[in-house]
Write a structure and sequence with these properties.
305 residues; alpha+beta; seven-stranded mixed β-sheet; three-stranded mixed β-sheet; 10 strands; 19% strand
């Protein structure tokens, strides 16, 4: 009996490394990525940061990600901002020239910052995807801050930002429901005093199924649209729909006093075929139909006044 117990103990001891390897494969990790040469140069001021060339750094990160994926490990890539890192270290009382400080910051931004799950993307695809995700998140946070700062209506006591978001969500739902089947690319552009807010979402719908929409994209889009609803700015929404064996269709609306009013086909053509920076005409795309926006007014709740 003692012999059996001793054998079991040795078996458990021998299996400990394999169990740790199994746990390591199941433990997700985060890699902080310096996406451009300016951010990379800022980190080179720290002696503990050993890389000297940004291109080589990106190559090494790419190799690390591929190796981890080949070992069956999941990795999240987070945007590493040197300014945010320095501020984080100051607030947390950490030495920014320590690898442990960078690891802790990376863990923090994985929870609240812009991230992309690594699924085998080449590094030159991963970098712009991560930058786009960061811009989306910053836009969402800024739009959310604007709505929260509007407070309550002095006349009725209603939360202005909350009411605007509810209305924007209704408008988005109506738009996607009415758009019908196909793959949809929707862009919302809303001017504010500080900057132009832009939100983009992608969705698809089968002929007999519901709209498939990522919840975070929908919330970001509705938040930006809500800013225009609440502030009664002169923004706009463009919908591009792709269906098999048919030209792409482009529809457009302008925001007016909390409502999306359809543009004519000519207005959609003019808006889509004009350079936003120079105002000069741009050649229309082949295989694209420029169509009037469709009515979204049915069952529309009253806008807050």
């Amino acid at each position: 009996m003692a012999h059996i117990k001793q054998t079991d103990k040795r078996s458990r001891t021998r299996s400990a490394p394999s169990m740790r390897r199994a746990l390591r494969r199941e433990a997700p990790s985060t890699v902080g990525l310096l996406v451009d040469s300016e951010d990379f140069a800022a980190m080179r001021h720290y002696r503990s940061f050993v890389f000297e060339d940004h291109t080589e750094y990106l190559r090494q990160v790419d190799g690390l990600l591929r190796t981890r994926a080949a070992q069956g490990m999941h990795t999240t890539v987070a945007l590493f901002d040197p300014d945010d890192y320095a501020e984080f270290c100051t607030e947390s009382g950490l030495d920014p020239d320590e690898r442990a400080s960078r690891s802790r910051f990376t863990a923090e931004i994985a929870a609240a910052g812009a991230t992309v799950a690594y699924t085998g993307q080449p590094i030159d695809t991963l970098v712009p995807l991560l930058v786009s995700r960061a811009v989306r998140r910053a836009t969402w946070e800024y739009a959310t801050m604007l709505l929260a700062g509007l407070g309550d209506c002095a006349d009725c006591g209603q939360d202005i930002g909350g009411a605007a978001f509810d209305r924007a969500s209704h408008l988005l739902t109506r738009l996607l429901d009415t758009a019908g089947p196909g793959t949809h690319h929707v862009v919302c552009s809303m001017p504010t005093e500080a900057e132009q807010l832009l939100a983009v979402l992608h969705t698809a719908r089968d002929a007999d199924g519901p709209v498939r929409l990522e919840s975070s994209e929908g919330a970001e889009f509705a938040t930006v649209l809500a800013v225009g609803v609440a502030l009664e700015t002169r923004g706009g929404v463009v919908l591009r729909t792709t269906t098999p064996d048919a030209p792409d269709r482009v529809h457009g609306w302008r925001l007016h006093r909390g409502s999306l009013l359809p543009l004519t086909a000519g207005e959609v053509f003019s808006a889509y075929c004009t350079d936003a920076d120079t105002g000069q005409p741009v050649s229309p795309e082949s295989g694209v139909e420029y169509c009037a926006g469709f009515d979204l007014g049915a069952d529309e709740p009253e806008a807050h006044r």
